[in-house]
Design a protein that fits this description.
Strand content: 15-25%
Structural class: alpha/beta
Radius of gyration: 32 Å
Number of helices: 6
Shape: elongated
Distance between the termini: 125 Å
Number of strands: 13
Helix content: 25-40%
């Protein structure tokens, strides 16, 4: 009975379909969908439907069918590691992980691509845009090496490379009736931070490079500004209370002085 089921037409269910999927899992599936769109395996309508289903998925069982007919295969529930390993501390040393990149190329032909969130930048990432555009966001990415190269070819299209503060940027691209953004070049990097080299070719197109804080840094900055506003409001409130107290004291002293003066007058009249 067991052999018949295992060798029959009903495939076994993937392990742990009820496990909750993370944002990183959804981003990996969306990367597969974007690659399939660039390769022509999906049209734009199918891509949008599956991408919408990806971001609505809550479990591995909901994610698995989305890429089942694509070369990468299905999403498999992660193995549980019984060893307690140190958590990444967010330092540059913990973000240079070695190995292979999670994505090594991207293509946009009259369309667009995006790499963002938790992904691993390879030693060389190639991207091409023709009448389209793309965005490479490295703010929360890991790096396979201390120096990575991003090769951009933009033909009547544009690309945007977003790097976090502390990363050194070197621009070596060539532009003909187009250009590469050099504003972030020359900014020294932090000790241990990776170096990002942007190369390639732009014809009637452009490659922009922008330095932005990470989401955590933006949240921390917003929280700091919010706390500063609260501190200012508290200081103003305390100042107003102090002024009111001073005014009340001055008024009491004035009334007390007036009463003393009236008592003195009554005494003099009685005398």
């Amino acid at each position: 009975m067991t052999d018949a089921v295992s060798s029959g037409g009903t495939p076994p269910r993937p392990p742990g379909p009820e496990l909750r999927a993370s944002d990183a899992d959804r981003e990996r599936v969306s990367d597969v969908l974007r690659d399939a769109l660039a390769e022509g395996r999906l049209d734009m309508e199918e891509f949008e439907e599956r991408l919408d289903a990806t971001y609505k998925a809550r479990t591995y069982g909901e994610l698995a069918p989305i890429t089942r007919d694509l070369p990468v295969g299905q999403v498999v529930a992660p193995k549980v590691d019984m060893l307690k390993r140190p958590e990444p501390d967010g330092s540059w040393a913990s973000r240079i992980v070695g190995g292979e990149g999670s994505s090594t190329w991207a293509v946009a032909v009259m369309s667009g691509f995006q790499r963002k969130g938790r992904w691993t930048v390879p030693r060389r990432f190639n991207c091409f845009a023709f009448w389209g555009g793309g965005e490479l966001d490295l703010r929360e990415a890991n790096f396979t090496d201390g120096e990575v190269e991003i090769n951009c070819v933009a033909i009547m299209g544009g690309m945007q490379v977003i790097v976090p503060p502390g990363v050194e940027v070197v621009v070596r691209g060539i532009g003909i009736m187009g250009g590469f953004d050099h504003r972030e070049q020359g900014v020294p990097g932090e000790p241990g931070a990776p170096r990002v080299v942007v190369t390639g070719f732009a014809f009637w197109g452009g490659v922009g490079i922008e330095r932005k804080p990470t989401r955590a840094e933006r949240r921390a900055l917003r929280e700091e500004r919010r706390q500063q506003r609260l501190d200012r409001r508290e200081a103003v409130r305390e100042l107003r209370e102090s002024v009111r107290d001073d005014a009340r004291d001055a008024h009491r002293r004035m009334i007390g002085g007036h009463h003393d003066m009236m008592r003195d007058r009554r005494r003099r009249r009685e005398d």
